[in-house]
Specification:
Length: 444
């Protein structure tokens, strides 16, 4: 009887999807085209409903399936899900401060190399652990870190590199890893905007000591809110799980009392009774940062669609590039890093010096036509209000290119929600603006 009822519910969910989401029509100029957004079908709603009907709700069977499938896709041994990409970044940095790493742990005052043309949650965990961000300028071809400048910014205090693959474009992993090996630095890959991007045929996220991912609604796949940390290092995986699960000494699957690992080796350091329950021995200053099984159920379906999502992003990026290529005199575009195959997060446009119109004019025109845009994340993090308010200590180079991007760059979407009619409309609007501005310029 239960199966019959569930099947009826699933049928109604599919009908609801068709009624609510399936009949939406695109009206040029009226329907908003966001710069980023999710794409889903009735399968996602059914799978989440299945998780709800399980009555479990916290991390469970779908989370285990999602972790396993994601690890297989990335080609890594360990994948730990969490409730957001920001939490994934926090967990990765926290793990490297663990006393269980001995002399290699990060300590207050240690420096971590990164970029300022990124997102705050790459930097904020460093600040919370009293580490010092070292901001290196970007290259205006790839919009990733300038590796030559990076080499000059290494000091005796430098202990790690925490680097995003900007807008899905892999950074120069050959040079960055070479630098890390030379100076014995930890490497964290921030892949929150780059799921599915490849470098030398391997998935990004499989190169660093740790890597982080976001499954927020704007990213390559979504669990609503959600994220993950990946690693091939079993010890780091255990530490990440500990920080994620209240700081537990041992890893237990939710709802189970059987240990899943040998622990961090700190149980004997406490002053607890010898017979104290292992599930309540805590070795780290941890949190509860797990995701729910409903989120994981959504992720399971989304992950099955990832290959198609990636191809859509790559194809749309290529087509947009072709559309605006005739106007290359006025713009520079993000070039794929050598040896890489990006799963683009957005289509970045940077106005060249001497362009006959401003970024504001361009962006305002697009907004007026209901086409969403975004700046290149925080632009220059060193100039953000909170960095001034809290007098955050950091070190930087001149950040000349970062400042140029702050004033002259923006991006538009390439996500799967942009279908052929939306692409045609976007192309028309782009050309209308450019033709109009250039005609005015010629008349002058």
């Amino acid at each position: 009887m239960q199966e019959k009822i569930k099947n009826l519910i699933y049928t109604l969910v599919r009908e609801y999807y068709k009624e609510k989401f399936g009949s939406q029509k695109f009206v040029p100029g009226e329907t908003h085209i966001p710069a980023s957004g999710k794409s889903f079908g009735d399968e996602e709603l059914v799978k989440m409903t299945e998780a709800v009907l399980d009555g479990w709700w916290t991390e469970g069977r779908f989370a285990a399936e999602f972790e396993s499938s994601l690890a297989k896709f990335l080609g890594v041994k360990n994948c730990i899900t969490t409730n957001s990409g920001s939490s994934a970044n926090l967990l990765a940095v926290s793990a490297l401060t663990s006393v269980h790493l001995g002399k290699r742990r990060l300590n207050p005052g240690d420096e971590v190399i990164t970029i300022a043309a990124g997102f705050p949650t790459t930097i904020n965990p460093l600040i919370l652990h009293r580490l010092v961000p070292v901001f290196v300028d970007i290259d205006l071809h790839t919009f990733n870190i300038d590796v030559d400048k990076m080499k000059k910014m290494v000091s005796k205090k430098t202990k790690a590199v925490f680097m995003p693959h900007n807008l899905g474009n892999p950074f120069n992993l050959d040079e960055v890893r070479k630098l890390c090996r030379k100076h014995k630095l930890w490497l964290i890959e921030d892949c929150c905007d780059a799921l599915g991007s490849k470098y030398r045929g391997r998935q990004v996220g499989s190169f660093g000591d740790l890597s982080t991912f976001s499954f927020y609604a704007a990213h390559h796949i979504t669990t609503g809110e959600g994220g993950a940390v990946a690693t091939n290092n079993a010890k780091l995986a255990a530490i990440v799980r500990s920080f994620r699960d209240w700081g537990r000494e041992y890893w237990f699957r939710t709802g189970e009392d059987k240990k899943q690992d040998k622990g961090l080796g700190a149980a004997k350091r406490g002053k607890l009774p010898a017979d104290y329950e292992a599930k309540f021995i805590f070795s780290e200053i941890g949190y509860n940062l797990r995701l729910t099984d409903m989120q994981a159920a959504l992720g399971v379906v989304q992950l099955g669609k990832l290959k198609g999502f990636i191809e859509h992003r790559k194809d749309l990026y290529k087509r947009l590039r072709k559309e605006v290529a005739p106007f290359g005199k006025f713009f520079s575009f993000q070039e794929a890093e050598k040896n890489s195959d990006p799963s683009w997060f957005g289509f970045l446009i940077t106005l060249k010096s001497g362009c006959p119109f401003t970024r504001k004019e361009f962006v305002d025109y697009l907004h007026g036509k209901n086409i969403g845009t975004r700046m290149l994340l925080a632009g220059n993090l060193t100039k953000q209000p909170y960095m001034q308010t809290y007098k955050v200590p950091f070190r930087k180079d001149d950040l000349k290119n970062t400042d140029y991007v702050l004033k002259n760059s923006f991006w538009i979407g390439v996500h799967p929600g942009i279908d052929q009619p939306r692409f045609v409309y976007m192309s028309q609007v782009l050309r209308e603006f450019l033709d109009k501005k250039l005609e005015i310029k010629m008349k002058k």
